[in-house]
Amino acid sequence: MVTISHSILIQYQDEKAITVPSDMVMKHGEDDYMRLRPTNYAVIQLICGSSSCNASISSSRKLHELIRMRNEQLMEGHEHEDSHETLFAPQEPEASSSAKDAPLKRKKTMKILPETINIMVKGVQVQCLVHGRRPVASDLAIRIDAEQIQAVVEYMREDAIEAMQASKRKYIKKKRAQSMLSFHDVWMKGASMSMVGFNAKLVEGNTIAFAMSTDPSRRAMQIEKNKALIEQSSGHLAPINGQEGYLTIGGSHTVAYLRCIEAGLSGPAGENTTHPKSDAIWSAISEGWTWVTISSSVEEAIPLLPSFLQSSLNSTNSIQKSITELETAMLLATSFGRGMTMRQAIQHASAADVRCRSSIPAIATFVQRFAGHAGTFPILHFLSNFSKVHGRSVQIGEDMMSLIAGMDFKNPSNMFPMVRTAIWTTLLGCPSASIKDGIARNIVKSDIEKLRSASVIAKTIETESLLLDSWSLHQKQPSQHMDNCFGHLCIRRILHVLNKAPSASIENKTYESLGAIVACFAKEVHEPPSQQKASSASASTDKVMDLISAKPHRVAMLQNSHMSLYTNTKDHGALVFQLVDIQDDGATMRHQGLHDKLIEVHVPLDALKKWRSTKTPMPKACDVAMQSRCLPQSHLAFQEEHQRAMVIVALHAAYEKHACGHASIAFGQHPPSLFTSCPCKKKAIRLVPMGTIAKHKGKEPTKAIQINAFGHQWTITAPKQNSMFEDDKLPLVPFFWVRPAPSDEEANMAWSVIKQDDMSIPMLVNEDSIATHAVLLHASAEPEAMKEPPKKKAKSKAKN
């Protein structure tokens, strides 16, 4: 079968040509028409010059204007259709009392619409196809003509781009069930906003704020919470200026990011806030936009209103990230605290976000059982405070949440609430490199299940006891400092028990023992937060310097701080020099070659600009001790290869010495077996394993077939064999064809050991005579229980 098809490509100016999908092309007569469907990827690509997944230009005013023009032209000329003369006048009804009173019924006539109409777009007549059962509600279909398409694109482009951006961008919130915002999220979302450009029309009238309380004590509490949030951000959120009057629940991250730009701050990952003064973001900072504001008395009368509005905004405005499991837990806790039942709280939270909805029953279980006191839920507040400081908001996934809340540790007297909290803390502190599609992946499902395994459960119980004691200390003096200390303890202990790599931790560090973790926790608890900040500040490279009174050599070092190793090819060729000293009269450079004398050069300060930094290292000679250890005759790698070769030679010699002829044994299949082909006398069959030799690397002794030599175990791995007796390129090794006996009484082959060049090599030997066609079966004893060689035993008896 031969199929021939054609497609239509349209290119606007120098932009990328787009292929019009077949379902967007309509045929009428000899002309083709393209449907301008506002959600079609190719249509948006043509109109806007670019497109993205799930984009739409449905809100474009210019598109609606074109459709309105088409509909007006469509209906023009049919308004007076009822007044036109008809060929046959309707027959008058007979006069009667009832007929006189009744209104005359007029027969409906079907309107005949034109097949195409023309509309004017930028001085060009654009031909539109009339199609569908309801033409006024159908897609705008324009004739595929270069001039007409160009006129439509130029007319719609600017407005369509704005409509597309509005369809992609949604809004973000600040307080989700009293959890407040994370400064990591502020900068992550702010960077995305700066990348696409700020558009005030998108936030105009769509952001919501509650007026701050008129009650002095409550107002002071609101201010203190925001001050604490700013203090926890380590300088990545703008300070309060005292003029604030509202608390936001919609547009919070936008406001926080704009305030950071105004204050000239930088982000936690070094994000820059530099924007040109012509940027629309500065107009928003100076002029603001229209907000929806709600009185504080409304919040006092309806306490659940803020969380309800947040849930609604989360369902419609969240594009950067969905509401997380922790935020949902805070929302559930707020609902429980205000008298809702479990079922009502779940229904209330389910309206917030689809992505997290399947985890809500597990989240509710955690809140009910493991969140601490029902009135304050201290565990949830600890998790929230820790996550805001040490990482951006992340999902943990339905499977992980179900395990955290519902895993059975198979201990009747302990449900391990602190271990579950520590697992969640570890996921919240996930490094950015381990976050995949917004979900933390530094620990996985198999890691959590490992905590209840027989080999780890003792450490899990020890961890629960340690965390309970530490939590009691935390509750005696709760603070952000204690939240940080306890959170780090949870992460360190969980990763230590699971034996995870340093990259799974935000510290990127491992601890050798439980004692080291406890010692670090104790040190951090007793070290004041101010001292920790001072130590981190002292380690920073940003120092204040007094250049007014600085001496010349200090100024020279500041301007040439990169100079560690450098070259001056014009004066010294390829030689590499090191800066060893600098004074007001100049700098001293030193070069030390492998066999050359020491070269020192004095360089005036004003001549330092001639020198260029280099990554080429200084010539270096190998240390004599290192050289002696690494030569082939003494290096461990070559010694091991030599030992392996000697083991292989000894094994081959032992096999050749005790090899059985083909006349005494035979191979069989289905099932695979080795049997005798003739009567065999006692100790007539001696089978030595032949295979691949490798040094055993593990610390524990191996149970595999092995040779003991040079103080190590060398495993013997069976080669791939000619099991179907069809390929003579593959070997047949009799040793590996002997099957284990169902019981030791049925075994006719016993384990033994032979000595070959001072090496102990395993062997199977028949200790009794065997009849013809008997299947060879070995005893179940492990190779380490092998007996001394029969030959040596006979000699010892003879001596006696």
From TrEMBL:
Region entry Disordered, spans: 76-104, 781-800
Basic and acidic residues: compositionally biased ranges: 76-85
Name listed for the protein in its UniProt record: Uncharacterized protein
Lineage: Eukaryota, Sar, Alveolata, Dinophyceae, Suessiales
